[in-house]
Give the backbone structure.
Amino acid sequence: MEYEYKERAVKSQPEKELGNGQGLFIGLCSAFLGCLSLAAVLAYLYPAYLTTTELRAVYDAEHLQQVLKYGMWFSLFFGVITFIRNKKKRLGALGVITTLLAFSFGGYQIPVGAVEAKPLAIGIDWLILAFLGTTIIFTTLEKLFPKHKDQVVFRDEWNLDFLYFCINHLLISILLFIGNYFTSVFDWAASDDVQHFVQSLPFIAQFLLVFLVADFILYIEHRAFHEVPRLWPFHAVHHSVETMDWMAGSRSHIMATVVERTLVMVALYSMGADKEVLDLYVTVAALQAIVIHCNIDLPWGPLKYILVTTQYHHWHHSSERPAIDTNYAAHTTLFDRLFKTHHMPGDHWPAEYGTTKPLPRTYLGQLLFPFRSSPRSNDE
């Protein structure tokens, strides 16, 4: 019997709309800027422990203090506005209190100097920059090109995925440490001939090769997490998201994240590609990983037959029977087509997302879920 595809029903939530007249947007601006300002000031106070060596080499800490200055004053301004005109006074209070704490610790005038490199640190700088950048870019895209116009930014379980977002970015130094460790462990597997061949290629050819090799590694790893019963509970955490947007991709069990990133790092570093090529791949891969979870409907044209797009990956997250265990690829559709796991039913989009059996709805519950659950059965 042919499957009947349906339209997704999105519940209207006017009370959560940013422009609902209750001051939600202004209050949130104050709260987020205040919390980020306090975190940034702590990072300036203890840079060896609260910032990442790799990222410090990219940005200018003194110039960013000017950004911090405006963020702190705007947090206070928005906080005062919430007290005068709006009803979201708790958000405004949070913004004002955290900003005043940031001022009390030195604010944007903390001296900047040389920083001792630590092998392990909490990536507060990475969290702040990533959150500001992705929020501005992808929230704007979701408002300009929404697939589901009634879907609100602060949808159900947004706070849970925000917690995942924070933890994943704060642990970036630890994830890199683990990846670098296993890269050194498997250094014996690297071939000088292969590395010389890769390094002899032009930049664009190196990038395309890295892109495809990573895609193949991610395809195999992703498929294993779905089809090996003992591995599925770890990956099921990622699939427990029932509303797709740019924040949804952050929900991932820490063990699954470590395995995925380590396998790719070992493979790519063993190839010996130029650093600039690897840097470009990491940037493109990170952006694509966010885009394919977004609540956006962009006209991809012929690229939708080659690259993993938003619609394509949304089907991977669908709990509808024809879509289960399909569309494993992360970058291109090539390996799904080769191994017969491709699912793209024309212009249809999923009506339902999530797992067929419910998972705990808290971070701790999901962290422990793989160790308490039974292996995946055939009907999940």
Q: What stands out?
A: Residues 73 and 261 are 38 Å apart (CA to CA). The two ends are 21 Å apart (CA to CA). The mean pLDDT is 92.
